[in-house]
Write a structure and sequence with these properties.
This protein is mainly alpha-helical. The protein is 39% helix and 0% strand. It is globular.
Length: 233
């Protein structure tokens, strides 16, 4: 895959984004645990996304963090599972957000969350709207397009060239943020399977004894990452 115009290169994206994702620094167990092999994405029992939405999230995340290259892609890291679980939980319902009006969905995103819709509602309304645009523009829904067409469609979505209702206009930035989160979050949340992204960037995970290393520059950390659950890569 060639990088989507307007987006950073895949390597710089992965390296730079890791620092911006909130990751827990405390482990709940000191014992090493071996992760059980998860069910395949085809057999995964979804908690929120329907068939069309799942197909879109699978295809979109695969283009945002593709499998080609020297690091794991979003599919290998099971990012779609993370997104599905988040949308089914407190994040999807904006459980602990202030969601009282008045709302101005057309206001600048710099003013914060302006849509009256929850994240789950944004996904539910934006995906069919975007699929309809893809069908009209490219002849098929997003998941059915060739990779190059998908990249072109995502670029149009990012640039605001896809006509969406103001309430869901920030769908691309939400999708991209959730994809990054699923890629770098602790595996207990469904993504970052096997801590592959942590291994790739050299992040130690939830290791408790790490205080002596931040000041050691240009020295490779000798131990692999540990998850909150105690799983070791």
């Amino acid at each position: 895959m060639t990088d989507i115009p307007g987006l950073p290169s895949r390597r710089s994206f992965l390296k730079g984004s890791a620092a911006g994702v909130a990751l827990s620094a405390l482990a709940t167990s000191a014992s090493a645990e071996k992760a059980e092999a998860p069910v395949s994405l085809e057999d995964y029992k979804r908690e929120f996304l329907n068939d069309a939405e799942w197909a879109f999230v699978m295809a979109a995340t695969a283009r945002l963090i593709p499998s080609e290259g020297d690091g794991p892609g979003a599919i290998e890291a099971r990012v779609p599972v993370f997104i599905d679980r988040q949308l089914a939980g407190d994040y999807g319902s904006a459980e602990d957000w202030y969601m009282e009006g008045p709302h101005d969905a057309s206001a600048s995103p710099q003013l914060g969350w302006q849509t009256p819709l929850t994240p789950a509602e944004v996904y539910r309304q934006a995906i069919p709207a975007f699929d309809a645009w893809c069908s009209k523009t490219h002849g098929d829904v997003f998941a059915g397009l060739e990779a190059s067409q998908q990249d072109e469609a995502l670029t149009a979505l990012q640039n605001g060239d896809v006509e969406l209702q103001p309430e869901v206009r920030d769908f691309f930035s939400i999708l991209l943020a959730n994809t990054k989160e699923g890629y770098f979050a602790d595996p207990m949340y469904g993504g970052n399977h096997g801590m592959q992204s942590w291994v790739y960037i050299g992040f130690p995970g939830a290791r408790a004894a790490f205080r002596e290393w931040p000041e050691r520059h240009n020295i490779k950390y000798p131990l692999g990452p540990v998850s909150i659950s105690g799983e070791r890569a």
